[in-house]
Design brief:
The chain has about 260 residues and is mainly β. It has two helices and 18 strands. It has one domain (about 5-255): Trypsin-like serine proteases (Thrombin, subunit H), CATH 2.40.10. Strands 7, 9, 10, 11, 12, 13, 14, 15, 16 and 17 form a ten-stranded mixed β-sheet that branches. An eight-stranded antiparallel β-sheet has the order 2-1-5-6-8-4-3-18. The chain is globular, with a radius of gyration of 17 Å.
Length: about 260
């Protein structure tokens, strides 16, 4: 599976979300890869309960074709405004089921505004974007910033004035009700997106050190408002949250997307 283009249906909800990055666990001492599991991320708001590890099952194209289950959903904390609960990411960790084919360090290269694979030179369906690292390269401009979602495909933003970095954002449910949860230090940008694009990789794909589809994994899209502004969490914040998964802590491993 190529991250970004697959719609994932969640067992506890009729909605769909977009398959986020695939992750591997790396030994902190030897840098060897943990062989037992390959992981992926989805927004926590796509699971049965935000901030609770409840074993939510997901499938593709529906839950009759299960591909994985939730193994860790970081709890919220009271380290924020009085009366609210907070987290630094809207991300939950899932484990791929045995026998499910997963592609590591790749993001689908889709047609603009369409969930269809791009098929012209220099890329083809057989050559998706390749992740070189996490975060954005500080040496070069990171515009355009691209997201690849299962509904609207590949969309981008090309103006610095469209960005608001490190904004605390209250999380609303699908009915528009405030959940009482605040996501801390998120980024907003005028990236076209649909509701079911939640989970879409947000990547930097420009600059002279990004030849032929080499990208940086910048973040994961999780929401949007009615004014066409989308919100995403930085990849570093996601990994920091998910590295508290007790199993990985117990064996001294940490997660990596490239």
């Amino acid at each position: 599976m190529w991250n970004g283009l697959y719609a994932i249906r969640v067992s506890s909800s009729p909605r769909t979300c977009t398959l986020g990055y695939t992750l591997r666990a790396i030994d902190n001492a030897t840098l060897s890869v943990y062989k037992s599991n390959t992981y992926f991320i989805l927004p926590s708001h796509c699971t049965a309960t935000f901030g609770v590890t409840d074993g939510t099952i997901v499938g593709q194209p529906n839950v009759a074709y299960q591909i994985g289950h939730e193994v860790y959903d970081p709890p919220t904390t009271a380290d924020c405004a009085p009366g609210r609960q907070c987290r630094r990411s809207d991300a939950a960790l899932f484990s791929y089921d045995a026998g499910v084919s997963a592609t590591f360090a790749k993001v689908a290269h889709a047609v603009t505004n369409s969930p269809t694979l791009y098929q012209q030179f220099p890329w083809s369906p057989a050559i998706p974007y390749t992740i070189l690292g996490t975060g954005f390269n500080s040496t070069y401009s990171f515009l355009p910033l691209i997201k690849v979602g299962s509904v609207t495909g590949q969309t981008s933003v090309n103006s610095y004035t469209s960005f608001s970095p490190c904004v605390d954002i209250p999380l609303y449910d699908q009915s528009g009700n405030d959940t009482g949860i605040t996501l801390k230090c998120q980024t907003t940008a005028a990236i076209p997106a649909s509701d079911d694009d939640s989970g879409a990789p947000v990547v930097d794909s420009t600059g002279p050190d990004h030849p032929n589809g080499i990208i940086y994994a910048g973040g994961m899209l999780w929401g949007k408002n009615g004014a066409g502004v989308a919100a995403y969490t930085d990849t570093g914040q996601i990994v920091d949250d998910l590295n508290h998964y007790p199993h990985l802590v117990s064996i001294n491993y940490s997660l990596r997307v490239w």
